[in-house]
Structure formats: structure tokens, C-alpha cells
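Q: Please design a sequence for this.
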């Protein structure tokens, strides 16, 4: 479909003479593929640049960049909402305003968790920065993704330039966006498996240069990820991102509801439903896949049962590192979409939302590939702590003490809540 859309309107309108079959439902007053493709090229370039800059600054300014992601995202969403209203795009204005409100409420609900979250992210960055081969993997996969986006953008530009009506163009763009999102998720989770396997090996053997380490562990993880485990990666990529995002939002709101019993019951029902889904689709499965070669569903169940049996699930639930990294990914996507959208507005103001929204997705995928290396280190740290806490103590004794203290407090907090619920009068 992408190739057809690209060729249909490249340099010559209706090159394949498709419009003759649909002259009643299509328009005939739009542009050429080559008119819109440079806008997508800019989006790819900006997204790749943001991802590479983030990786470059990972070691020295990562904590600052994560704080910026948390606090700037709400403002950026609000500004884009105002611009959409100014351009008379009321639907998108309401959508971005709603996103800004939800983001603000979420940050307020988890503000007490951010110090511990930043601590975990700092330690994950420390681990990643000590493994330069991990950075090379991220750069290589970003180059692969950029190459695929070069092909994908021809199809997207062809759809925007096509003579189909707005509704038809939007449906085709949705299909293309889903394909891009899934491809990006597969590549992100492939990097996740590679980095998780390498980090786990480093932690379990006591260091990168330890004698028990297998020779060339990076190539071993890479070969395993793109062969034996690739089916599990593709399958898990369909569901994990959406379920994790929904879980973060519900957890944040659930903790701030107060005494509204009706609302609490509704949110609690959704929470229990999502928790059941998380048992079968969670990011910690990729560590089990990388290390033990399990199938995705079995790996997800085993990881969750390991957390629950050791109590580490209470610590995982308290940590917001995944949400903070997602905020950085969304911010990168918004910046990319803004750059492409502003250029489009200067020439084709009626195509700003189409180009800007798909360009935003391109930026999110590229920046997400940079963020995933830190997230992989976080998941490996938690899996190692659940399997054998002494591995973390051997790696960083101070961090081990901080994690143990926080876990003890979280378990005490949960016990107190359980006692309070049991002692309430019926």
C-alpha cells in the first residue's frame, strides 16, 4: 500500500490512473507525494537528532533531562492546545487540553514518588553508561528505524497528497500509524531484550570484566533476540505499551480519590482488570525471555509471580520510572510534530494536523528507542533484586540499602491499609 500511494502521486498527479474508479467519492485538488515528503524527512531528522542528543547527554545530564520531561510536558501540551484552537482545530485543541489536564493530575498524584523514581533512574543510567556496547546497539537500531521511516514516509506523504476525501485519508493514516507504532514497538522491545540480557549477565556475574562472563555477551544477546525470541517480542509488542500506560494512570488516580466510595469502586474495578492483564503482558517478561528463553506469556506470569512472592511488586508499583521515560518520549514526539507541523502550516495550512500528528508518532518512536536502554536497565535491576538481593548489594551497597528500606516501608504501608479495611464496620 505504501509503495502504491508513493508512486500514485510522485511528480505526476494520478500516475496510476486510480481516480477513474472512484470519481464520485474522491476529490481531485490535492498535491503530490514529493510536496509532503520533505516534511516527513524533517520529522525523521528531528526525531533522530533528539534521540541521539538524549543518548549523548545520558551520562552527565540525564537527571536534569528527566525532570524537564516531567515538568515541561504539561506546559507543552497546553501550548499546542492553544495553537490548535487558534487554527480552528477544535477537536485537536480539546484532545491536547485533556492530555495536559491528565498529565498535570498524574504528576500531582505521584509527586511523592518522584525522588525514589529518580534514584532508580540514576542507578540505571550508571549501569548503562558503564556498558558502551549498549549505546552502540541503541544507535544502530535508531539508524535501522530511520531507514524504515524513510520508506514509510513515502506512503504517508502519498496518503496526505491523495485525492481521497479527508475521512478516507484519516483512515489510511491510522492504518499506517498502527503499522509504524508496532514496528517501533518491536524494535524497542528487541533492544529491550538485548540490553536486559547484557545487564542481567553483568549483575549476576559481578561486573563487565568478571571471569565468569561468557565471551562476547552482546552478540549472544543480539543473536538470541533476533532469532529464538523474536516471535515472543512481536507478540508482546502488541499489548504491553498500552496496558502499562493505562496502569500508570489508574494507579495515580486511585491513590488520590479520597472518600468518594462510588468513584473509588469504579476505579478499583478498572484497576483490578488492568492488574490481571499486567500479569500476562508486562515489560519484565523481556528479561525472562532474554535470560531463560521463555515464551512471552510464561515469562510474564513467572516475572509477576516472582515479584509477588518476594514482595518486590510493592516496590515496582511505587516506582514511576517507566512513566517518566514515557513523558520524555512523548515530549520528543511533540517537539518533532511541532517542527513538521509549523513547516506544513507555512505552505499547506489545511494539512497541518495530518502531517503533524504522524510526524509526532515518528518522533516518539525514535526517542523511545533512546529511552528504552534505561528502561531495560531498570527492569533488570528489579528482576535481579527479586531473584537474589545480594546481586544488587554486591553491585552497589548503598543503593541496595535504599531499596531495602523503601521496600520495607511499602510493605508496612500495605499492611496498615489492609488492617484498616478489615477493621472498618460493615
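A: Design:
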Amino acid at each position: 500500500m505504501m509503495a502504491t500511494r508513493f508512486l500514485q502521486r510522485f511528480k505526476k498527479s494520478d500516475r496510476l490512473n486510480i481516480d477513474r474508479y472512484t470519481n464520485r467519492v474522491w476529490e481531485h485538488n490535492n498535491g503530490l507525494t514529493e510536496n509532503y515528503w520533505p516534511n516527513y524527512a524533517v520529522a525523521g531528522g528531528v526525531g533522530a537528532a533528539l534521540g541521539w542528543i538524549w543518548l549523548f547527554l545520558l551520562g552527565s545530564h540525564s537527571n536534569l533531562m528527566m525532570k524537564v520531561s516531567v515538568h515541561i510536558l504539561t506546559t507543552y501540551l497546553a501550548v499546542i492546545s492553544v495553537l490548535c484552537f487558534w487554527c480552528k482545530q477544535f477537536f485537536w485543541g480539546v484532545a491536547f487540553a485533556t492530555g495536559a489536564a491528565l498529565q498535570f493530575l498524574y504528576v500531582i498524584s505521584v509527586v511523592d514518588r518522584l525522588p525514589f523514581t529518580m534514584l532508580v533512574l540514576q542507578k540505571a543510567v550508571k549501569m548503562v553508561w558503564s556498558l558502551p556496547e549498549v549505546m552502540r546497539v541503541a544507535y544502530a537500531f535508531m539508524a535501522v528505524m530511520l531507514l524504515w521511516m524513510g520508506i514509510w514516509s513515502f506512503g504517508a506523504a502519498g496518503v496526505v497528497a491523495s485525492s481521497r476525501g479527508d475521512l478516507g485519508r484519516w483512515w489510511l493514516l491510522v492504518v499506517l500509524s498502527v503499522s509504524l507504532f508496532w514496528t517501533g514497538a518491536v524494535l524497542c522491545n528487541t533492544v529491550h531484550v538485548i540490553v536486559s540480557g547484557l545487564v542481567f549477565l553483568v549483575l549476576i556475574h559481578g561486573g563487565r570484566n568478571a571471569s565468569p562472563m561468557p565471551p562476547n555477551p552482546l552478540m549472544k544477546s543480539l543473536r538470541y533476540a533476533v532469532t529464538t525470541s523474536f516471535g515472543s517480542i512481536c507478540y508482546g509488542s502488541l499489548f504491553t505499551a498500552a496496558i502499562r500506560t493505562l496502569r500508570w494512570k489508574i494507579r495515580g488516580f486511585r491513590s488520590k480519590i479520597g472518600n468518594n466510595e462510588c468513584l473509588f469502586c469504579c476505579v478499583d474495578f478498572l484497576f483490578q482488570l488492568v492488574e490481571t492483564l499486567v500479569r500476562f503482558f508486562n515489560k519484565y517478561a523481556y528479561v525472562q525471555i532474554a535470560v531463560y528463553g521463555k515464551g512471552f506469556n510464561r515469562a510474564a506470569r513467572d516475572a509477576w509471580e516472582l515479584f509477588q512472592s518476594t514482595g518486590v511488586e510493592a516496590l515496582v508499583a511505587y516506582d514511576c520510572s517507566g512513566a517518566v521515560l514515557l513523558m520524555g518520549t512523548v515530549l520528543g514526539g511533540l517537539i518533532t510534530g511541532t517542527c513538521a507541523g509549523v513547516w506544513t502550516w507555512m505552505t499547506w495550512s489545511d494539512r497541518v494536523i495530518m502531517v503533524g500528528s504522524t510526524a509526532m508518532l515518528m518522533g516518539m518512536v525514535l526517542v523511545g528507542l533512546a529511552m528504552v536502554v534505561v528502561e531495560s536497565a531498570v527492569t533488570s535491576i528489579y528482576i535481579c533484586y527479586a531473584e537474589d538481593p545480594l546481586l544488587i548489594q554486591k553491585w552497589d551497597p548503598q543503593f541496595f540499602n535504599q531499596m531495602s528500606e523503601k521496600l520495607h516501608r511499602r510493605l508496612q504501608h500495605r499492611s496498615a491499609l489492609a488492617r484498616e479495611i478489615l477493621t472498618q464496620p460493615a
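Q: Thanks. Anything notable?
A: The radius of gyration is 23 Å. Residues 81 and 95 are 8 Å apart (CA to CA).
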